[in-house]
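notes to self, project folder thing:

trying the whole complex as one job this time. last attempt i did each chain seperately and stitching them together was a nightmare. two parts in total, labels are on each line so i dont mix them up again. if this works i'll redo the older ones the same way
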Amino acid sequence: MDKNGADILIVGIGGLGVITASSIIGMAAVRAGNRVSSAEVHGIAQRGGSVTGTVRIRDYSVSPLVGDGQADIILGFEPLEVLRNISKASKKTIVITDITPIRVITPTQFVYPKLEDIFAEIEERCAKLYKIDGLALAKKAGATIVRPTVLLGALSEIEDFPISSEVILITIEENVPARYKEQNIAAFREGANFIRGQLK
Amino acid sequence: MEEILTGKEGERYFLLGNEAIVRGALEAGVDIAALYPGTPMSEIGDVFHALAKSVLDKGEEPSFYFEWSANEKVSLDICIAASLSGLRALCPMKAQGFNVAADSFLDYLTACNLVETDIKGGLVLVCADDPGGTSSVNEQDDRYIPILADVPMLEPSNCQEMKDMTKKAFGIAEELHLPVFLRTVNRVNLSRGDLLFGKLGVPRRKGDIKGVPISFDRTRCHANILKKMEKAKEFSEKSEYNRVIKFDGGKTGHRRIGVVASSISISYAEEIIRELGVEAELLALGFTNPLPEMLCKDFINKFDEIIVVEELSPFLETQFLKMAHEISDKTKIWGKETGHFPRAGEYRLETVAEPLAKVFGMDNPIPRREGSRIELVARALTNCPGCPHRNTYYAIKQVVPKDAIFANDQGCYLLGGLEPYKMSHAQYSMGASIGLACGFQQATGKPSIAFIGDSTFFHNGMSPLANAIHHKYDITVVVMDNGATAMSGFQLHPGTDRDAMGREAISIKIEDVVRGLGATFVEVVNPNNIAETREVFKRAIAHNGVSVVVSKALCRLMENREKRRKGLKITSYEIDQEKCDQCNICIDIYACPAFYEVDDKIYIDDVQCAGCGVCQEVCRVGAIREKGAENG
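result (full assembly):
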C-alpha cells in the first residue's frame, strides 16, 4: 500500500453494511482521481450469509478480485468472517475488525469459536490488528444503523491510506439518508478517534 | 444512481457493471427495455425503474419505456416488436432466463430475416452467465447460443466495456440487421469500477411497422442469416474490442508464448502477466462471435505456444485448436484440454496464476495460502430472520403425511429444501414445481405438494396449474406470496398494484387466477399465524383434487424497510432465561437464524432479530418476550 494504491477487503455477513461500505470507499477513491475496481461476493440469501467486498485502488485498470496474500487492509464487520478470509492476508496486512460476533450459524450445531482464539490467529497472520467496538461507538454517535461509518472512520486513519479523510467524509455525507447525516458524521469521527488513540 | 442519467460526458463515474449497461443503453438512445429480474443482472431493471421514478417525480416524461415483464419470453417478444417497429430495445436476462426466452429468440430470426431491412431498430439481448452458479441452478455457458442462432456476440471484461459495448451493440445490430448477444458474467455484472461517460443518445420514441415479412422459405431465411454473419466477421476483424496487449516486463525465455483471453479472464491474465514480469502478448477478445479469424491466425503464427484463459467450456480453445491445425499444427495450445485450467467453477486470480506461471516456467506470483487453523463451518443458507416462508414450512411440517413428496421452485422459499425443513425432493426451473408434483403423484401415488412463489407463479406457474386442474390431479399447491420478486431484490410483478413506470397497475390476485382456472379448494392464509395455517393445510391435504393454499404475508425485509422509512419502531425480543427450558425447538426445528446458543443457554441476537415475534407462538413455555417487558 502506498499513496497510489491499496487492496482492501471488506468482510462480514449480509445486512451489516459490507456492500454499502465498499461502495463508499470506491466512490471516494474515484473522486480522489484513482482508478478503482471493486467486487462483491455473496450467496443467494438476502441476509445472514457471508459477504465479501473488495476495493482495489490503482493508477491503472485492474481485476476486481483480491488474491491470496494480496490484501493491504482487511476491514471486518464480524470477527469470524475476518478469520474466514485470512488467506488473503500477509504479514503486511492491517486488520481493523468490529469485535461483536454474529454467533448464529443455524441450523448446524456449530459452536462459535472463542473470540480470543479468533483474534489470536488474526494477529499472528497480519502486521497489525485493531479491534473496534463499532456497535458501542455507533450508539455513542446516535444510532446503531451508522455502525459501518465507524469502521470507515477507522479506515481513514490508517497510515498511507491513499484517500484523504475529507474525501471519504464528503462521499458519506452525499450518500446516506439525510435523516442520518449528523449521526454518520459523528460515527466517522468516533472511528477515526479510536484509531488515533491506538496510534499514540 | 441519479448520475446514470445526469452524469456529464467526459467525466469519470464509479458504477456497478449492471448500472454501466443502463448508461450505455441511454447513450444509444434506447427506447424500450423489458426484463424479468434474476441475479446477476437484476440491477439493470432496478436502475431503469428508479430513473423512471426520479424523472416522473420531477414532472417530466422519461425518455424510455421500461417494464418488469412477467417472464423472459414476454420481455423478449416485447423487445422484438419494438425492434421490428424501428425502435432500439434492450432485453437483459440471466442465463437460465435465456432458456425461457430461447423459444422466441431462436424462432424469430427465421421469421424476420427475409427482407434485408426488416430489423430497423437495434435489438440487444444481454445474457448474464453465472460461473460458479452462486445465484443460479447451474453454470450454463451461453456462449454457444450465438453459434447456434448465428448472431454476433460481444463480451465485456470490465465496467467501461459494459457501457461502451452496450452502446456499440445497438449500432452493430442495425448495420447487420441482426440482434446482438451481449454476454456478460456475474463477476463483471456485479463489479464496480470507474468509467468515462459519453453523450446521452436521442431516442426515436415512436416506431411503426409496414409490410408482412411472412415466408415459409426457411432455407432462404437461413442462407440470408449466414450472409449477414459473413459481414459480421469483417466487423469482428476490425473491432477495437479484439486487440493485442503487449507486456514488456523484461524477463524473456527461449520459448515464444502468447496468451488468449476473453471476458473477465482478460483482467486476470493481464494482472498475472504483469506480476510475472515477462515479455508477452495477450490477445484480448471482446467480439467473440464470429471470431476474427485473420487476427487470431496471425497471433497463432507468432508463437510456439498459446495459453487460452476462459471460464467454463473450452469455447475459444476448441476454435483456436482448429485454427492452429489449419495453419500447421506447430503451435501448442495450453488450456482445458491439456488439464491446465478447470472447466467447472468461477475463476479467481489464483486459478489463473498457477497454470500461467507453470507454462512460463516462473514462480507462481499468487500462491494459495492456508485458511484458518480453526475449522470454520460455513454460515448456513437459510431464510432471513422473520421470513414468512419459514412459518409456512413450520406449519405444514406439523400436519403433512410422513410419505409426502415435495416439489420446490425458484425463489427464496427453495431454502426450505435445506436443513432442517428438507422439504424438496426436486427443484430446478421456474414453475417446474407444479408439473413435478403431478408427475410424482402419478408415478408414486403418494401425497405430493408443490411450493411456488408469487412472482414464479406469474412467470411460469399458470399453465402447469391449468394442466393439473384439468387432469384432476390430487396435489396441494402452496403459493408463497410475499408481495414481490424478493430473492432478486423485491421487484414488482403482475400481483403488485404499481408498474415500473410508477403508474397504477392492475393487481392480479393469485386466488382469483386459481379460482378462474377451476380449482375447487382455494384458501388464503397468513403464515405468521401458525395455528391457523396448520388448520388450513390439514384441510388442503385432505381435499381430493387440486387444492391451492395462498400463504400470504409481506417479505419481512420489505416490511421493516417500510417501518424504518415511516420512523416506526421495530420491536425486539429476548428470552426470559427463568422460563426457558432449553428444549431447543426454536433453534433446531423452527431454525430462525436470530437464535444462538452459548453454554447451553439460548439467546436472541439483537442485530439479526427482525422483530416478527412469531417465535412467541413457537415457544412452548412462553419464554420469549418483547425486550424491556420484564414482567412478560
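what i see at first glance: Chain A has seven helices and six strands.
need to look closer tmrw
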